[in-house]
Design brief:
The complex is a heterotrimer. By secondary structure, chain B is α+β, with helices and mostly antiparallel strands. Chain B has eight helices and ten strands. Chain C is of the alpha+beta class. The chains are: A alpha/beta, B alpha+beta, C alpha+beta.
Chain lengths: ~850, ~325, ~210
């Protein structure tokens, strides 16, 4: 949902986010909603600046979000608060699941399909009865015992099995009711520490603000993703919103508040290991991806929009390999490197430490501060043969070899570190042109106004010039392995005398054009519906098609907002992918017959006269598909033809919002509460303590401790402050922000401070098996002890912006954190861990920790 | 939840479409019309209405002020007063966000159940953690201006109070004269400094930097009569919605507008006693403290005036 | 290497001592009382100093005003960059944006401070293996050296097939980290060159942290 659409919400739940602090301008729309009468709720481990502005604040112990949200789902189902017409028609609530599906409640915390040997699930028993549904995520193919690509084709033979009376015990509704029945208000209190009256105030207040006349929104940020159960927390929110009818409607939805200016863009056009642009999966060595045909057979879905997959893939290969891409050579598919497994940041750090990775580029990222287990990161950087850092200032990651922890404590000297390092100054805002994609998919152009100082260059310059040099070095190679770099299209016009490529030329390629070897003959493509799988179109990222629809029209540059009397979708302010749609799934803003659910929540509707969908937003549906369209199953329809006029979720193979997810999630079809990997308590729900599929790299340089370790009795959560940005590199380098939060500190509840004799601004030492840091204490009642299962659990808050560089300094919080990841995303669990705490300081040369098994020392 | 009300959210004014080009040849004329809905005209009174029930304590006002006015960092260090590391208004800090934690509650009241600090169901609008962006009040009868022996402090054509740096001789009389502790001497140049209500920006049709940046419109800039009217409506509306503690401080006839100061051009909506935010409950002109010094100053001035009048007369003749 | 005390970037240190004569001259020239007494208007104009008369907002000096998007979080606030003669003189919120309508948070409001931070570098720094110092190097030299190292490491670590014959065409020897603060165009070329051109698989950014 667009951020400005929050002003149309009737209730807003902020959870896993400290929105007022970390997204203040987005929060202005929450406050506008409040002025119009909306209720605001905040559930969070800490009382923050967001909490201060809401109607109800619910304290929850870090890492227990699923218990809280599961309680809301139970509240909806037990009290019949769900939006029946919406959920029955637009979600898979009536779909029947395989007979042998076993819920986590029946199996002490694990779902059916668990393989103890492989430590992973097989997904057969999670499927629709008699049908196999491909994942709606980028990675459509999943491992099942039967040939997955064959069995998904059954989706073309008829509608998915349903019981619209919802009586069948195997239908999703009944499964949901059983699964969430254990999340009673009493259980919510026992797990989260939130008083049940407070929990009920939030649950009831939020749910009753939904229906045909009203909508509610949920806002989250990394407070949800930084867990070993992060994806399932967001799934729980999705279940709530689907049941309440809050998806695709004005003022409804789930708003992911992302943290960097183009973090959405860098996911869409991914500098990520497992994706190609536009959410096409990177070919995998251990999947049936041998040839382009194999890859397409296994990744294109038989029904729904992703059926168009081959068009996007071939157009990408055409854009990258130009004339060399031919039908005969599979459009150069084999040039794409295949991944072997998880190549994300946590295993990347370990691969550096182990000497597998020898050279590294760090572009605008500072892992010595922002990466989990900072001591390990610093050590790993020192194992590289060479390191290239592009940034505007010298970061901790560029200076680890003389200022790092191991050097400060005398364990290492610079002479011991063999890494050859290049630190290149970069251009910043206003010194380069290009686009950022914001958190609601809005692609906004920014102009170059001046040159950067001295040798500062854009990263576009760097990568383009590096590519030119490498192409020259490989120009005469005849080796097959060098064809990728030799064939790569790399002819971008230069925008200035310094060799800066024209960013608009790159954006034009991302948008896509009709293929011709002669650049002068190419025409921009206005819509991805025109992309083909025959090599006649080239497109760098299909979902961005339309951002540069004509040779002389850069839609990302348009700057016309709607006035007060306009529709408020601002279709001429920049460009939102896909196809300038501001609200996804907006077919759901109309009822099954195509009429708006209510005048008040009008957005998109069926115009019978014109025979098309109309509205104030670009329609996220087949423009001319009638609301009463039903597939003719006798023809075995494919793609969009297999979806009804009432199936708004066009990216999902059955067109319906997934309350129950049959494929694509590694840790279960439904969210269920597991304790964080490092937790002070036992899981009150199941014998299964933690997510059984969590990624845990327990090794001597990344030691993990079992639950309830008496040396680490306190829950620890890391967080950000509004005055600083992420790793703090920019804001610690600017006086006017640095002085606002000038030093590192940790927040401690007064009761714990009294127990340990800690006063305001006293020095304290925090420790985990990975290391220890010193910082100052901020004793505050905004942090509270939790009573969990009759035990008092203290929680400590620790901002992680600080490092040894810049004007505002402090010990690196990530010295304490571990490489532990969510099974689906590999995202670390830095929002919920445990630590020790004592008053005092570290000696000047006392190590922050050693890169060996500290447990042995302690035992 | 009350009746469903549809109040249009603050929208971008249509006039913005006159400047829809990505690259502009210069600043947008009368930009304050777009950002504050105000056309700035000399001869009218301007000020700030700071509504603490909308403040999120982000300190954008402090930063925008320092960036615009090129003010250096000041008294850097962790202060241990909640999230306030600015401490006070000073020669180099013309906006200061005060933070007041009012969590409280009896932890043991619930016999080990859950967590019992009384901050779950909140009083309506900002509560339990008060934040307020403080600033020079630009008093109607400004004691600093009256104390200034050099005429450096003057009332501008926008009815704001400004220290003219090219005149200020650093005598410091204005410092104790201010009942709010706003005016401060800078150790570097020895002169008095404080908020100018962005005098330069007002002359160019620009909203003051702090108010323009404020993400939640807690700081509102405008013509004083409009602001006072808006503020009174806001108080009524808050009272209706249960925030019965809300009141104005410094608006005509309200607390803060006392002691011959008249009203304050920068006034506030508060929900707790003024002292809680570090504001005096009944500010007065500190004339009894300043009078002796003022007397000495006046004597000096008398002599200087004679010389200056002669000089001016001479200049005019030539 | 103790961090320096914050000081406003680009600001010259204030002059501490001026001669008494300087001060007296300015004082007499600017002092409003004599001007008022010598027959000028008694209204505020008369009380104005020379500086107050000539004062204008520096945004009026801008010869180019460019559209920018805030470089911090993903809310996507629009900014206006005011430049004069090729130098940025200020950055403010863009009043035309339906997202921020001219407002900015403390980070965005400090964008000008970021651009002009005294901690910004303008030269390439190079640290040789086992060295204890940075050295300044020409940009071209660094780019050539980086390209050579990239080729060398790639050639030494490139794998065309796994032992079971699966074609992988990748290198596990080079990694790239970062991208969430970069432009879409930059990310596109990074992915295209590193993955599509060189066969690197360790390509990641902040989206997962």
């Amino acid at each position: 949902m667009p951020q400005w659409d929050l002003a149309n919400s009737d209730a807003i739940l902020v959870m896993g986010s400290n929105m007022a602090e970390n997204h203040p301008i987005a929060f202005r729309f929450a406050l506008q909603a409040k002025e119009k009468g909306a209720a605001l709720f905040h559930a969070d481990p800490r009382f923050t600046r967001t909490s201060a502005l809401v109607d109800t604040y619910a304290p929850v112990r870090a890492g227990t979000d699923i218990a809280f949200l599961g309680g809301i789902i139970r509240h909806i189902l037990e009290n019949n608060l769900w939006f029946r017409d919406y959920a029955l028609n637009y979600t898979n609530i009536s779909t029947i699941i395989e007979d042998d599906f076993l819920d986590a409640n029946q199996n002490d915390g694990k779902f059916s399909g668990w393989s103890e040997k492989k430590k992973s699930y097989e997904y057969d028993s999670w499927q629709y009865k008699g049908e196999f549904v491909p994942s709606s995520l980028a990675e459509h193919f999943v491992n099942t015992t039967e040939s997955f690509s064959d069995c998904t084709k059954r989706l073309k033979k008829g509608p998915t099995p349903k019981d619209e009376t919802l009586q069948d015990p195997r239908c999703v509704y009944q499964i949901l009711k059983r699964h969430f029945s254990v999340y009673t208000p009493e259980m919510v209190e026992r797990v989260t520490g939130c008083p049940k009256e407070t929990f009920l105030a939030v649950a009831d207040g939020f749910c009753r603000a939904s229906g045909p006349e009203r909508t509610g929104a949920i806002c989250y940020a990394v407070g949800w993703t930084h867990h070993s159960t992060g994806v399932q927390i967001i799934r729980a929110a999705a279940i709530i919103q689907l049941l309440l009818g809050n998806v695709g409607r004005p003022g409804g939805g789930i708003l992911a508040l992302r943290g960097h200016s183009s973090i959405q863009g860098s996911t869409d056009i991914p500098t990520l290991y497992n994706l190609l642009p536009g959410y096409l999966p990177q070919p995998h060595a251990h999947k049936p991806h041998g040839t382009l045909q194999d890859y397409i057979d296994h990744e294109a879905t038989p029904t729904g929009w992703w059926h168009n997959f081959p068009k996007y893939m071939v157009s990408l290969l055409r854009a990258w390999y130009g004339e060399a891409a031919m039908k005969e050579n599979g459009w150069c598919f084999e040039m794409l490197p295949k991944i072997l497994g998880d190549h994300s940041q946590l295993p990347m750090t370990l691969a550096m430490q182990d000497g597998l990775i020898r050279g590294m580029f760090l572009m605008g990222q500072n892992p010595a501060v922002g990466g989990s287990n900072s001591r390990l990161v610093q050590s790993a950087l020192g194992k590289l043969d060479w390191l290239v850092v592009t940034d505007f200032t010298e970061t901790e990651s560029a200076s680890f070899w003389y200022e790092g922890h191991a050097v400060r404590s005398g364990e290492l000297t610079p002479q011991d570190i063999g890494t050859e390092i290049f630190l290149l100054p970069t251009s910043l805002a206003g010194e380069k042109a290009g686009t950022f994609t914001n958190t609601h998919r809005l692609i906004q152009w920014h102009d170059k106004v001046v040159d950067g100082p001295g040798d500062s260059r854009s990263d576009l310059w760097f990568i383009y010039q590096l590519g030119r040099r490498l192409k020259a070095l490989y120009a005469n190679s005849a080796a097959v392995k060098d064809q990728g770099i030799r064939y790569l299209t790399w002819d971008y016009p230069e925008a200035d005398g310094k060799g800066e490529p024209d960013a608009e030329a790159v954006l034009k390629e991302i948008n896509g054009y009709t293929w011709s070897p002669d650049p002068a003959q190419r025409q921009q493509i206005p819509d991805f519906k025109e992309l083909k799988d025959d090599g006649s179109t080239a497109c760098g990222c299909w979902i961005y098609t339309g951002v540069f629809p004509k040779n002389d029209f850069n839609h990302a540059r348009s700057r016309k907002a709607d006035g007060a009397d306009g529709p408020g979708t601002h279709l001429q302010w920049a460009f939102a992918w896909p196809s300038n749609r501001r609200t996804l799934v907006n077919r759901a803003a109309a009822d099954p017959s195509g009429k708006p659910w209510s005048e008040r929540k009008k957005l998109v509707w069926w115009d019978e006269e014109k025979g098309e969908w109309a509205g104030t937003d670009a329609v996220d549906f087949s423009k001319n598909k009638r609301p009463d369209y039903a597939p003719d199953w006798s023809t075995e329809p494919s793609g969009m033809d297999a979806l009804c006029g009432t199936d708004p979720f066009i990216m999902i193979a059955d067109g319906r919002g997934a309350l129950f997810v049959p494929s694509g999630l590694k840790d279960g079809p439904l969210p269920t509460h597991y304790e964080p990997v490092e937790s002070p308590v036992r899981n009150p729900l199941y014998a299964q303590q933690q997510n059984p599929t969590a990624k845990i790299w327990d090794r001597p340089d990344n030691p993990i401790h079992p639950p309830g370790d008496p040396r680490y009795p306190y829950a620890l959560t890391t967080y950000r402050l509004t005055e600083h940005h992420s790793g703090g590199t920019p804001t610690r380098s600017v006086a006017s922000t640095a002085e606002l939060q000038p030093e590192g500190f940790c927040e401690i509840p007064p009761e714990l401070a009294a127990e340990l004799g800690i006063g305001m601004l006293d020095w304290v030492v925090l420790s985990t098996p990975r290391g220890q840091i010193e910082t100052k204490a901020m004793v505050t009642e905004r942090l509270r002890p939790f009573a969990i299962d009759g035990r008092r659990i203290y929680q400590i808050g620790l901002p992680w912006h600080f490092g040894w560089k810049g004007f505002a300094t402090g010990d690196i919080a990530n010295v304490l954190t571990a490489a532990i990841g969510d099974p689906n995303t590999g995202m670390h669990e830095n929002k919920a861990l445990t630590c020790g705490l004592r008053p005092g300081r570290l000696a000047p040369d006392e190590p922050r920790g050693r890169l060996r098994d500290v447990r042995q020392e302690g035992d | 939840m009350g009746a469903v009300k549809d109040i249009p959210a603050r929208a971008v004014p249509k006039r913005a479409l006159d400047y829809a080009e990505p690259i502009l040849p210069g600043m947008i004329p009368d930009e304050s019309e777009l950002t504050a809905g105000v056309t700035i005209v000399p001869g009218r009174s301007y000020g700030f209405f700071t509504d603490t029930t909308l403040c999120i304590g982000c300190k954008a006002c402090e930063v925008a002020c320092k960036e615009w006015n090129a003010l250096p960092a000041d008294d850097v260090g962790l202060k241990g007063t909640s999230y306030d590391n600015t401490g006070r208004l000073s020669a180099n800090s013309w906006r200061h966000v005060a933070f007041v934690e009012k969590i409280g509650g009896d932890l043991d009241a619930g016999e080990g159940r859950g967590t019992e600090r009384n901050t779950t169901t909140m009083p309506p609008f900002q509560s339990n953690w008060l934040m307020m962006s403080d600033v020079c009040k630009h008093c109607h009868n400004a004691p600093c201006l009256e104390a200034c022996p050099t005429g450096s402090l003057f009332r501008t054509e926008f009815d704001t109070v400004v220290v003219q740096q090219d005149i200020c001789n650093g005598c410091g009389y204005c410092v104790p004269a201010c009942p709010f502790g706003v005016v401060d001497l800078n150790v570097a140049d020895g002169k008095a400094h404080k908020c100018t209500l962005c005098y330069d920006r007002l002359k160019g049709g620009l909203e003051p930097a702090c108010a323009k940046s404020c993400p939640t419109d807690s700081i509102q800039f405008g013509e004083l009569p409009d602001l006072v009217e808006r503020a009174r409506e806001r108080v009524d509306s808050l009272h209706e919605r249960g925030a019965t503690d809300a009141y104005l401080y410094g608006a005509p006839g309200s607390p803060g507008a006392t002691g011959d100061l008249g009203h304050l051009n920068a006034f506030f909506l508060l929900t707790d006693r003024p002292e809680t935010y570090g504001l005096p409950s009944a500010p007065t002109r500190a004339s009894n403290r300043v009078a002796p010094a003022l007397g000495t100053g006046l004597a000096t001035m008398a002599g200087l005036t004679m010389v200056a009048v002669a000089l001016f007369a001479a200049n005019r003749r030539s | 290497m103790k961090p320096r005390q914050p000081r406003k970037p680009g600001q010259s240190r204030p002059v501490l001592r001026r001669t008494l004569a300087d001060r007296a001259r300015d004082f007499l020239a600017e002092w409003s009382l004599p001007r008022q007494l010598s027959g000028e208007s008694p209204f505020s104009d008369a009380a104005k100093s020379r500086m107050s008369h000539t004062l204008r907002p520096r945004l009026e000096e801008a010869d180019t005003v460019g559209t920018n998007i805030c470089p911090y979080c993903a809310v996507g606030c629009a900014q206006l960059i005011y430049a004069k003669e090729g130098r940025v003189i200020h950055v403010e919120g863009d009043p035309r944006s339906p997202i921020n309508q001219g407002t900015l948070c403390p980070k965005g409001a400090a964008t000008f401070g970021w651009l002009t931070s005294e901690l910004r570098m303008s030269k390439v720094l190079y640290r040789a293996p086992h060295s204890d110092r940075w050295e300044e190097r020409p940009l071209d030299w660094a780019m050539d050296r980086i390209a050579q190292l990239t080729k060398q490491t790639r050639d030494e670590t490139f794998v065309e097939t796994l032992p079971d014959g699966t074609v992988v065409n990748h290198t596990l020897g080079i990694a790239s980290l970062g991208g969430a603060t970069l432009d879409n165009e930059e990310n596109y070329l990074i992915k295209k060159l590193f993955s599509g051109g060189l066969g690197m698989v360790w390509v990641e950014n902040q989206a997962r942290v």
